[in-house]
Amino acid sequence: MRVAGIGCRAGAPVAALRDALAQAEAQGGAADMLATIAARAEEVTALGRALSLAGVEGIGTPTTSPRVMALYGTGSVAEAAALSVCGPGAQITVPRVISACGRATAAIAEKREPE
């Protein structure tokens, strides 16, 4: 399973989310689903395939934004959302990328299914 976590500023345009997602998928392949936090469900729902989470506080992430850490208790909403949905044993395969306008981020986590 490959999950793209999406983070964004309130009211970020769909184009910014698409840009961030496209960048992440170009590096890590197409995602099977999207994930975000409840506070950003409206923006991600605009993409037509959103999955909201109760929270991502305390989930360790490879990259860290001090602003996001102060607001949400994790270094990257995109990375933490992707890891949370994938579950235990998941790994970030594409660290956080930022849309050209700077209003959205995306990251991809993957959990390999046992063979």
Q: What is the overall number of helices? A: 4
Calculate the terminal CA-CA distance, rounded to whole Å.
13 Å
Tell me the helix content. 25-40%
The proportion of strand residues reads: 25-35%
Q: Which CATH architecture would you pick?
A: 2-Layer Sandwich
> Stretches where pLDDT falls below 50 for ≥5 residues?
48-54
Overall spatial form? globular
Domain count, please report it: 1
Question: For the CA atoms, what is the radius of gyration?
Answer: 12 Å
Which features does this protein show?
115 residues, alpha/beta, Nucleotidyltransferase, domain 5, five-stranded mixed beta sheet, 4 helices
Could you give a short description of this structure?
With 115 residues, the chain is α/β, with parallel strands linked by helices. 32% of the residues lie in helices and 25% in strands. Strand 4 and strand 5 form a beta hairpin.
Description:
The structure is a single chain. The chain is an alpha/beta fold. It has a single domain, classed as 2-Layer Sandwich (Nucleotidyltransferase, domain 5), CATH 3.30.420. It contains four helices and five strands; from the N terminus they run βαβαβααββ. A five-stranded mixed sheet has the order 3-2-1-5-4. A hairpin with a 5-residue loop joins strand 4 and strand 5 (104-110). Mean pLDDT is 85; it is low at 48-54.
